Amino acid sequence: xxxxxxIIDAAELDAVHVYMKGASFAAFLDxxxxxxxxxxxxxxxxxxxxxxxxxxxHSMIGSAGIIGARKVxxxxxxxxxxxxxxxxxxxxxxxxxEQLMAAWIEAAKELxxxxxx
Length: 117
Prior knowledge:
Layout: H1 10-20, H2 22-44, H3 50-67, H4 70-84, H5 91-116
């Protein structure tokens, strides 16, 4: 894996690759891509509940950490904290959710590239 990655920490993903090897790593990437699709769908269908956004963001922190997606992880942490601080979602939370969704989409592109390397 020699391509420079912008969202995912290549060294962390390489460590997972070395640990898992071949087909296991491919299956891991497939599972990560499915999880990202779920996260993006959740963010697209958010209903304005700050509690729901906080819960979703918390789940996303773990998913991002596993693949070394530090930017995604940081955005999810920001969304979680911001969502816990307000009773109702508003423009600030919507903006963070949109940024997080865009970062997840970029992470998915990088993982898809890893599938073909």
